[in-house]
Amino acid sequence: MYIVNSTFLVPQEKAEEVIHIYKSRSKRVDQAEGFHSFQLLQNHKRPGELVVHMEWESREHYLQWARSDEFKEIHELEKKYPDQELAGIIPKVAQYKVVAD
After folding, report:
1. Backbone φ and ψ of 100, nearest 5°
2. Would you say the C-alpha torsion 38, 96, 67, 31 has a positive or negative sign?
3. Does some domain include residue 100?
4. pLDDT digit string, tens, across residues 30-53
5. Residue limits of the ABM domain (predicted)?
6. Residue 73: which pLDDT band, with cuts at 50, 70 and 90?
7. Alpha-carbon torsion 85, 71, 41, 23, what sign?
8. What DSSP string describes 76-94?
9. pTM for this structure?
10. Above 70 in pLDDT, residue 79?
């Protein structure tokens, strides 16, 4: 299994707005080969810290998604988000291979 976490900070007063966006996400990634799960995590002590947590069958499956036209289309839409403060946020991405469970 392969884990990809994208951590980003938003102004605390905009956290609920971002959560709503993810609750109504397109779910296109859910159909990708090798995709297992998606969760949006919120830091309990710092509500403006959010993490997109995705689980994949393998690194190769994740990379296949990340190189796809659908991935590019979804991320282009984010750049056009009306709130330019949110549109300009660049997440810190960390990738992990599961070595024991």
Report:
1. -160, 145
2. negative
3. no
4. 999 999 999 999 999 999 999 999
5. 2-90
6. confident
7. positive
8. HHHHT-S-HHHHT--PEEE
9. 0.89
10. no
Answer yes or no: is 86 within a domain. yes
Q: Which two tokens stand for residue 56?
A: 């994949």
* Residue 24, both tokens: 């109504």
Compute the mean pLDDT over every residue in the chain, rounded to the nearest whole number.
91
CA dihedral (20, 15, 78, 8) positive or negative: negative
How many angstroms separate the CA atoms of 25 and 27, rounded?
6
Domain total for the chain? 1
Backbone dihedral angles phi then psi of residue 50, each to the nearest 5 degrees: -120, 150
User: Is 34:60 a contact under the CB 8 Å cutoff?
Assistant: yes
φ, ψ dihedrals at 47, nearest 5°: -60, -20
Q: Which domain holds residue 14?
A: 2-95
Whichever domain contains 89, its CATH number is 3.30.70.100
